[in-house]
Amino acid sequence: MSPLPDLESLRLLVLVGGEGSLSRAAAQLGLAQPSASKRLSTLERRLGLVLVERTRRGSRLTDAGQAVAGWAQQVLRDVDGLLTGAEALRTKRDAELRVAASMTVAEYLIPGWLGELRRLRPELYVGLQVTNSEHVPELLRGGAADLGFIESPQAPAGLPARRVARDRLLVVVAPGHPWARRRRPLGVAELAAAPLVLRERGSGTRETLDRALRRAGAAEPRPLLELGSATAVRNAVIAGTGPAVISELAVRTDLADRRLVAVEVEGIDLHRVLRAVWASERPLAGPAAELLAVTRRHRPGTATTGATTGAAAR
């Protein structure tokens, strides 16, 4: 039996917690009560936990069940965001709202934002084009997108921009890499001299790193590999290919699970601002303005994994 729970069982658990009744939760999902009871029993066996206490008055979640239901709600929100983002990619032509986003923003932030927008406007037809930060302004100026999201160090000239999130780049390695056992921070010159797994030129991540190294008086980074997405960079580092400089958004879970280790670097500032941008010919209105409002309500925080000091601390 696979240890991974299926999504409908997680939905059922969350509904039982909200309804206080297995039969009412089953009815909402269109399940017969015996089938729902079997689903919960299977979920409990897979997780090795008692999740639901069944009594004559109804069903209630145990303490473990409440904890799992809370995590399940986040999983279900993430899946809804994934499906919404995938739908936007499929329907980018003739959309009511056309969005262009840089790779990191598209991978880690856009699905949640679009999911929230679609909950508010379920009838809205959204199209998403994923590209490098340097190409987003071209799409806006050419009328191919209504709203763009970039991760470049500076806002494009001539385009209105607004901060939607803060991010930082981290130096990460696999647990078996020598840098994972360092007791002293890495120096900027050491970072620049090391062969790194990098994003390709034209990406906002690469532009941020190149600029930060120049400001710190260091040479350009040495590419060991140049890859087209944060996911590809992350996977290469986990596989032991070499160190990388990557968005914190892409590796938070890996750091918490110790699949990756963040390496402290001194004397360089790798923080950055993620921005929404749009064409200057007309004020932002309609669905584009609504999406921008969603980003302001759902700004991701910056985790405290302690990856840069020196310039970053000032």
From TrEMBL:
Keywords, alphabetical: DNA-binding, Transcription, Transcription regulation
PANTHER family given in the database record: HTH-TYPE TRANSCRIPTIONAL REGULATOR (PTHR30126), HTH-TYPE TRANSCRIPTIONAL REGULATOR CYSL (PTHR30126:SF39)
The keyword Transcription is assigned to this record: yes
Protein name as annotated: LysR family transcriptional regulator
Sequence ranges assigned to domain HTH lysR-type in this UniProt record: 5-62
SUPFAM superfamilies: Periplasmic binding protein-like II, Winged helix' DNA-binding domain
Family to which the UniProt record says this protein belongs: Belongs to the LysR transcriptional regulatory family.
Organism for this UniProt entry: Streptomyces hygroscopicus
